[in-house]
Specification:
The protein is mostly helical and 101 residues long. It has 2 domains: 17-63; 66-101. The protein is 74% helix and 0% strand. Helix 1 (20-51) packs across helix 2 and helix 2 (53-63) crosses helix 3. The longest helix has 32 residues, at 20-51. The chain starts with 19 loop residues before the first helix and ends with a helix.
Length: 101
């Protein structure tokens, strides 16, 4: 079976946590790429990132989970934040949230 080049790199790999709105953006990105190629995809991603950076992160993470995870780790390391620092912060936030209820 011959694989076409289109969408090979746009396959959703990780659906964890995706909302209906995320899926709508994923479909928009695929349509942009299908209609006009990589330049259109790039423009659509840039517009999404400017409009809703959190959603853009989730959508990119759906396509490229390992790359996004490693990029975040690298950026946090550049800022001096370790994985253990993040785990401690999450524990504190969870505890604070539980004490509110």
């Amino acid at each position: 079976m011959k694989m076409t080049k289109k969408f090979d790199h746009l396959e959703v790999v990780d659906t964890t946590g995706l909302t209906d709105a995320d899926w709508a953006e994923i479909n928009n990105l695929k349509k942009a790429y299908d209609a006009a190629g990589e330049e259109a995809l790039s423009a659509a991603l840039q517009a999404l990132g400017e409009r809703d950076p959190i959603r853009a992160g989730r959508v990119l993470g759906a396509f490229f989970p390992d790359l996004v995870r490693e990029t975040i780790k690298d950026k946090l390391a550049d800022m001096g934040i370790t994985e253990e620092d993040l785990r401690e912060l999450i524990r504190k936030l969870e505890n604070a949230n539980q004490s509110r209820h």
